[in-house]
Amino acid sequence: MSQGTSSTREIPETGLKPKHIAIIMDGNGRWARKRYLPRMAGHKQGVETVRNVIKSCSDHGVEYLTLFAFSSENWRRPADEVSFLMQLFAGALEQEISKLHENGIRFKVIGDISRFESRIIQFIKKGEQLTAKNSKLTLTIAANYGGRWDIMQAIQQMMENSSELPIQFDEEKLAQYLSMYYAPEPDLFIRTGGECRISNFLLWQLAYTELYFTDTLWPDFDENEFNMAIQSYQQRERRFGQTSEQIQQ
Ligand code: IPE
Ligand code: IPE
Ligand code: MG
């Protein structure tokens, strides 16, 4: 299957090394509460984990890392927490983009960024432009992202680009309008923090992804935890509808 396509009719190339890892970084609030700290302290500590995981992915030759930073539903949190998360995001963008660039990392954001303050939108655009030609690792931040939003905006765009009625389309055509069309579908999904749900993350793209859930809270997700997730992935047999016998031939 060619890179970037999203059809379940063909079996993609897979190997022992996940090419694309997608992570729901959950558990910051509980990490802080355990220490009698405000939730914000957990989010701050979570940024450290982001740095470490980017490094681990680079070291392991992972080509795509996608991190869920803020969901389309997270606006429902208390206003002071939303505002803190926005400041943290703005600060991280301002400080980290040049370092990502130095390390050969391509930076991308998926999600409806129109709702962010203009300073954040500018940082995102500049960061994406600056790092566009880098190829060591593609780091995608999902911000104000929702899997249902993604599918809906893809349908909307596809309809706008189609001149003939009725519109003829298939999975392949729709997938071209999804916000992560530039990446192969995730091989490994990780969710920290103990919840076993997808929380409206990459709904379309996770169709055949190997899922890994750990109770470890995001600020505690260190190199050892990362290696455990990779090891778990390496023990899976990805069958894509086939039988085990067919795979082992
Ligand atoms: C994940 O940690 C970070 C974001 C959603 C931004 P949480 O803030 O959800 O932490 P818990 O789940 O309350 O522990
Ligand atoms: C999912 O975490 C979103 C992010 C990590 C950004 P949540 O903590 O918001 O998920 P739910 O609400 O518990 O499902
Ligand atoms: Mg949570």
Structure characteristics:
single chain; 249 residues; alpha/beta; Undecaprenyl pyrophosphate synthetase; 6-stranded parallel β-sheet; 8 helices; 6 strands; disordered N terminus; binds 3-methylbut-3-enyl trihydrogen diphosphate; binds magnesium ion; transferase; metal-binding; UPP_synth-like_sf
Q: In a few lines, what is going on in this structure?
A:
Its EC number is 2.5.1.-. It comes from Nitrosomonas marina. With 249 residues, the chain is α/β, with parallel strands linked by helices.
CATH superfamily descriptor of the domain at 20-146 and 186-231: Decaprenyl diphosphate synthase-like
Q: What does the largest sheet look like? A: 6 strands, parallel
How much is the average pLDDT?
A: 94
Number of strands: 6
Q: What is the number of helices?
A: 8
Structural class: alpha/beta
Q: What do we call the CATH topology of the domain at 20-146 and 186-231?
A: Undecaprenyl pyrophosphate synthetase
**Morphology:** globular
Strand content: 5-15%
Poorly predicted segments: 1-6
CATH class of the domain at 20-146 and 186-231: Alpha Beta
Binding site for Mg(2+): 26, 210
Function: Catalyzes the condensation of isopentenyl diphosphate (IPP) with allylic pyrophosphates generating different type of terpenoids.
Cofactor: Mg(2+)
Keywords: Magnesium, Metal-binding, Transferase
